Amino acid sequence: MGMFFSNIHIKMTENFSINDVKNFMDTTMTEKGYTCTDNNSEAEVTVGLYFSDDSKWITVMSDTFMFNGPDDAKKTAVTFSDKFNTYVIAAACVDSDYLIMNLVNTSDGTDGFINVGDYYGMPYQRNTEPIPWTKVIKNYEDFLSLINEEHVFAEEVFFSAAEMLSMNTEQCCLSTGMLEMVDAKKLVILRYKIDSVFNNDPPKFEIPMFDLMPCEIGRSHCVFVNNKGGGSKGIAVQFQGDYIENDEITFEDVVFEYKQNGEIITVPIKLNKYYPPEGKPVLWWRDKNFVIPPAVNPDIPYNKKMDLEFEKEFGIRFTPCGNSRKTLDIKVFIIPLDNQKGSACWYVYKYHKTKRNYIDSHNEDVDRCNLSEAQRAESLLDPDDFDLDD
Questions:
Q1: Which residue in 288, 297, 282 sits closest to 226, CA to CA?
Q2: pLDDT per position as a tens digit, 17-28
Q3: Residues 49 and 188 in one domain
Q4: In CATH, what number is assigned to the domain containing residue 312?
């Protein structure tokens, strides 16, 4: 995976300090509806400020920065240049394939945009010349050669240009996900949360990545959920299917998994067979004390929202054993005890109504793929290998 970042670099002058940049970020975030917090677990947005005596630039990283193109980059750069009356670079990198750097100074009209590389054949461009960079860069001819060369990784340009800018190489491509790699003495870290109650609904689970491959005997499988409702306590896991009554399929290595402070926690669990007053037996497990985290606030920046939802995922891993003809019958429910209607359910043919429809759809997808005969033979499902409903 390549490098992704969007950041801002402010050329230092005698007219402001790192504390002024911090206060500006506090004001900006407050205007967006955020409040400061010292509690890392409740923080929804992180901002990092890099400063060093041997660099002429302050770097600002924020979860709210996402420069999808040159207009986004310039708009953010202008905001900082207006405030501090100095040169500002807005930079962004996409998967190490494409780099943009926009130099702005609103006090003298400086606007120099450069782009390096390509991204899926559609580079974002603006019609400006690199000449404005002579105002901040040493060895302009070397800089010009650098941005016009071929590069395996687009960010190499910024790393190489850092010395020409009197900037430390460690700061030029920073993002909030890289703060632990930097000397803490060079950082000011700010954390914010949205000061509002956005979800008082009961817990409601959804499966973020619905696996469309059937379970295989002897191979680990997982089902994970996100909570899209309010926080709660207590969870249950239930397996359903015709295979349970006569133990045609059993499960080994069953664990409940969640994350805590970035660490994956796995709890071995035992599935108990239960015979309800009506209906067929099920396998179940519950933990009345598991704390269900509330849904991620939908108003926070998209990338951060995705990170937090991944951090808050929880679910079950299991390895089926026994009769392979019954694997399509495996159904997994993850249930909030406070709201059973908010449960999430996985079974592989859920969106195809019948097992045969699922197999037909799966095989059509395989046929559309550019696979070798061996890969195709391995991927196709044979209806005769499974117990179907018809």
A1: 297
A2: 999 999 999 999
A3: yes
A4: 2.60.40
Could you identify the residue written with the tokens 């030029």?
A: 172
**Given strand 88-94, what is the order of strands in its sheet?**
34-36, 187-194, 45-50, 57-62, 5-11, 88-94, 98-105, 110-117
pLDDT in tens, 74-90: 999 999 999 999 999 99
Please indicate, yes or no, whether residues 52 and 128 belong to a single structural domain of this protein. yes
Q: Which domain holds residue 106?
A: 5-194
For 79, the enclosing helix (H) or strand (E) is: helix 70-84
309 shares a domain with 245? yes
Question: CA of 273: how far to CAs of 241, 247, 252, 256, in Å?
Answer: 12, 10, 14, 17
Beta strands in the chain (DSSP E): 5-11, 34-36, 45-50, 57-62, 88-94, 98-105, 110-117, 187-194, 205-206, 221-227, 232-240, 249-260, 263-268, 272-274, 282-292, 314-322, 331-336, 344-346
Domain for residue 373, yes or no? no
